[in-house]
Amino acid sequence: MVTGFKKMMVFFLFITSTTILFAQNNPRLGILPFSGGEDGEGETMALLFSSEPELARFFTVIPRISNLETITREPQFRRSTGLTDVDTIARLSRPHHVSYVMTGHIRSLGEDKLLLVTIIQVEKFRLIAGTYRTYQNIEELEAMIPDIIRQVAETTKKYAPLYTPRLAILPVIFPAEIDPDDTDLLTHVLALGLVNSGRFSVQLRAGAIQTIMTEQRIKHSVVAEPANVRTIGRALNVQNVLSGDIRFLGEDTLFIASILNTADASHRTGNVVSYQSPADGMELMEKLGSTLGSPSSTSLFLKAVTAEPSAEESTEEDLGDGDSVIVSPSAQSVRTRSAGMILVAGGSYRMGSRYSEVERPVHDVEIDSFYLGKNEVTQEEWMEIMESNPSYFKGPLLPVESISWYDAVEYCNKRSVKEGLVPAYQGSGDSIVCDFTASGYRLPTEAEWEYAARRGTNMDMELMYTGEQNVNNIGWFTMNSGEKSWPVMSKNPDYMGLYDMSGNVYEWCWDWYENYTGERQRNPAGPASGTFRIIRGGSWLSSENSLRLTGRSGEVPSIRSSYIGFRLARSSLGSAQR
């Protein structure tokens, strides 16, 4: 009897441990509060999904990773469908170490209610599964939840490991008579059809697209023009964009959809659906997404590796379309690896300018001596440490890009360890802290970056850019870059020997973004927390104005873009007093 009981206990422990093991192997899924509905309906819906046993078969569930109030304060929040920009989702979910996030939205649709459910892969910034259901009461919806979970989980399992061409949806052009909420709803359902076809992963980058359009002065009405398609596609590191146009035809509404290849803005595929109301149009839009994602309509365009010119080649480089640019003779002899770091002697300066509100007020700052990299970190340098190359534009001497702020911090620590230095960073996510007395590599603070840029102009001179007044001689930007990045050190250096401080790629800085104060400061390192990390210097995509040495911008630290890279800094241990 005792022996039998022991056998039962052993069997029970085996089953329990096996269940726990399999549960631990399941990917972690964070549940964001569902938006929309009335009287806390969204919170109730999220709890229903979190507690559904079917979900635990596929995921390790982390319920309520954030609250609805936090999400709705985010500038990228899309109120009509409850979607947030993927960069925001990644930031909200990072402290919980989840691989996927489930979001949902409830809205009225005539006499029925509509529930949209979406799964987003956090690491790769992509929408990979989703579905929608109409219902009349909560009991009816509860019966559907297991089927919803099975559908989105199986799609996630099937397509998440695969490489699928990335697609971003451009702002839809529609008449003033159309309700923007209806447009967002139909666009969302179209996106679900695309991802469920398994042929595309949709990048929800509404905030980033708007930033690009603002900086490049792209009007909404011409967003699908070839030059704009190439610009947005390269900046977002996507192979495709979807352009949507809504028009009237008698009593019907037409939705015209085109998928464009961002390499050359060519038309890949397209189709048209007509409907009389959003309720009628949803099923048609989902089918449209599936049609556009059919195997016959897709092909993957690969970017060729950038070839480096030999010493015998002319100093005149072709940009295409009959344009060319003269590369400085000194740059032609520096087509090799990074030439190290420069000591920036400490001192005081007046930080900021009166040019724009974000650069005011001008204030006094004192900086201790520090070292700064001569050039932006190259892809060759990155691969020596990280053993992979995430960059959109490939070439060993091109600046590494498409790396997040967190990626840059990881590189700094790994390179420090490899070279026997004390790493500067500790912690993870938004809790990362910097030890400015450590000997290892780090990102420059915003104040250090501007101080170095000013010293590079010769402090006695009032220049807009770092090096000289003629921006064409020192920086790659939208008017001379040919819409791509260029090898580091292929323009003139500034007075200190720093290259590409204006242009080529934006550079991550340590600080969280906040407005200046008028106080005198010593070695300022920004606030303890925030939403955006500082980027400085402008890029190949930027207007001339954005290359000014006092210009400021910020991005969510999780974003990876082809126009953002970084430059290394190190503290001068004899003067680091922070």
Features:
single chain; alpha/beta; Rossmann fold; paralog of FGE (formylglycine-generating enzyme); six-stranded mixed sheet; five-stranded mixed sheet; 15 helices; 29% helix
The secondary-structure class comes to: alpha/beta
Taken as a percent bin, the fraction of beta residues is 15-25%
> Number of helix segments?
15
Helix content: 25-40%
Rg measurement, Å: 26 Å
CATH architecture of the largest domain: Alpha-Beta Complex
Name the shape in a single word: globular
What is the distance, rounded to the nearest whole angstrom, between the alpha carbons of the first and last residues?
A: 71 Å
Report the mean per-residue pLDDT as an integer.
Answer: 81
* Main sheet attributes: strand count, strand direction, barrel closure: 6 strands, mixed
Indicate the low-confidence ranges by residue numbers.
5-24, 295-339
CATH class category label of the largest domain? Alpha Beta
CATH superfamily of the largest domain: paralog of FGE (formylglycine-generating enzyme)
Count of all domains: 3
Count all strands and give the number. Answer: 26
At the third CATH level, what is the topology name of the largest domain? paralog of FGE (formylglycine-generating enzyme)
